[in-house]
Every structure is written in structure tokens, then in C-alpha cells.
């Protein structure tokens, strides 16, 4: 009532009804009952449609972003399938990082495990932020050489078997660096693929310049893996098509701003070679900052960005530290290249994530 000026409404009502305080009291009580009724109706609608991924929200922080954005708080509801929130860059303000993500519309975040220690920490975060944070458990190819003791494999399996851990990985092959020898990478990757098969969990894959060897290993386990997600895909159209033909899912990040090749992710999207039912989105925070000022970003793609999503990126993210709150901007960029509505991309990717990883709704 105060929003519209209670005294003004009351005086106007009494003037029209002969100054009757009794009638005003009856009217006021009826109005309160009606407000309560509307609230109950809204609550019922929300409960029956809570799986919808578009809704309107307003938070105290958002009201400070920009005066002319008031009243325009339509949120894309999205799921970040890959964020490295155990990184020391979030050591001092993780609560704020997660709250900003929620304010931006990121309802669930999967924290990536890249070593036994890191996977254990990721699992710990799921208990601190239940229903929001989920984890993966795996050994990155760079750390493959560290898996020298059988006890480490036992511990990794225990972590991966936890219900809050929704995938095995980040694991795979990376031939661009020499942190671990290729034969060591392959051996460690094979054991993790087998672990995913035994646990019945999706495989969260990292691959750089090693697609042929990676596919050979995965083909050996064809029919046993529940799902394969190629995390933070940065490859070519041909590489992407090979994964799609296998039925794999591709995770797209802010790298889409950086890709300037003629046959990379941008072309894969603009030619609509990547169907929505094989698409996932992620920030890979603190990496893969979505540089929306990239010189070769097409104008029609830049036009797909909303001021709201850009505000979150510009205010809270940098090249040195990306955050999950940047994900709506990634969704809008992907939508721009696909020629789709951002809300359709948000809906499809959130549905895919819920389905693949069994995230609670």
C-alpha cells in the first residue's frame, strides 16, 4: 500500500463514500485479503511451474546497477557445468561469488575436480552450498603423472561415488603441453573412463590436439558410458562434428569471443552444426573470460548482449578472474551466433544439464 501512497488512497476513498471510516476499514481488509489471495495464487503457479527456466527476479544488488534498468529484471536461468571454484583466486570471497552468480540467474554450478586433492575440496563445497554446488572428480591430464599410488585411486573412486559428485573428470588427453607424458596420460585416462562406466556416471572430458587417441579409448568403452561431455570445447568444426556424431555433448565458454579461426566454434554455431540438444554452457572460471569488446566479434552477436549481462561481466569479471555470473553473457553470445533467442538457448542447455548430470530441480 505504501508504494502507492496509503493516505492518498484512503482520503480519496472516504471522499467518494461520504467520509465513512467503517467502509474504508471494510475495503482495506478486503484489499489485504485479495493481496493474500494473489500471493497464494502466485505461489501455486510457481510450485507447478518451477521447472521453467525463465522468471523475473529483483535483488537489492541489482537495483544499484543502473537506474534505467529498473523494471527490466528478466533473468535467464542457466546452469554452469564447469567452474574451478576451488582455485585460490576465490579464497577470500567465495560466498560473494556464488551469490553474484545466483543474482545473475546461475542457479546451479558444477565445480570441477582436476586432482584427488582438488576433487575432495570440490566435494566439500557441495556440502557447504547444497542444491547450488555440485562437483566432479577426476585427474586432469597435466596431473596424470601424480597418480602413482593405488591409494590415490581408491580415494578418487570414493569421492566420485558420492551422490553430490555428478561426473568423473576433468580427465582426458592434452598433447599441447608436456606436464605428463602422452603414454601416462592415456593410462590414467583409461582408468577414469572405466571408473565412470562402473559408477554409471557421465564422463567430463578435456581434450587438446589429441582427438584421435581420445576417441580410440572411448570407442573401447562404447555402450558402457552413460554420457560424454567435452568440456570447454575449443576445437574445429570437423572435430566438433566428430564428437556430435558420437552423441557427445559440447561445453561452450567465453572462448567464443577469442576464436578468430575460419573453421572454429563460431562457424560450428553459425552454420547450426551444433544442435541445441547437444549444447551445454560453462564459464570455466577463473579462465575463459568472455571479452565482449573483441574486435572481430560480429555486430549482430554484440547486439544480442543485454546491458544486464554486460553489467555483471564488466563489474565483477576480469581477464585474470572470470566468475560464474558471466554465464548469461555466454548464453547470449551463443544465441547470437546460432540465430536463436537467448531464452531458448538457456532453456535447452539447462534441460541438458539436468538430464545428463541428474541435478536436483
Task: Write a structural description.
The chain is α/β, with parallel strands linked by helices and 361 residues long. It has 2 domains: 2-48; 56-357, Alpha-Beta Barrel (TIM Barrel). 45% of the residues lie in helices and 14% in strands. It is built from 14 helices and 10 strands. It has helices at 6-16, 21-48, 94-104, 116-128, 150-161, 182-199, 211-220, 237-245, 255-258, 265-270, 299-302, 307-316, 327-338, 342-357; strands at residues 54-56, 74-76, 78-83, 106-111, 133-137, 165-174, 203-208, 228-230, 249-252, 279-281. The strands form 2 sheets. Strands 3-4-5-6-7-8-9-10 form an 8-stranded parallel beta sheet. A two-stranded antiparallel sheet has the order 1-2. Strand 6 (165-174), helix 6 and strand 7 form a beta-alpha-beta unit. Helix 4 (116-128) runs parallel beside helix 5 (150-161) and helix 13 crosses helix 14. The longest helix is centred in the N-terminal third of the chain and has 28 residues, at 21-48. The protein is globular, with a radius of gyration of 24 Å.
For the structure shown, list the relevant keywords.
10 strands; TIM Barrel; 361 residues; globular; alpha/beta; 8-stranded parallel sheet; two-stranded antiparallel ribbon; 14% strand; 14 helices; disordered N terminus; 2 domains
Count of extended strands = 10
Tell me, briefly, the overall form.
globular
CATH topology of the largest domain: TIM Barrel
Q: What is the CATH first-level class name of the largest domain?
A: Alpha Beta
In percent, how much strand structure appears in the residues?
5-15%
Structural class category: alpha/beta
The CATH superfamily name of the largest domain is Metal-dependent hydrolases
Instruction: Assign the CATH architecture of the largest domain.
Output: Alpha-Beta Barrel
Largest sheet: 8 strands, parallel
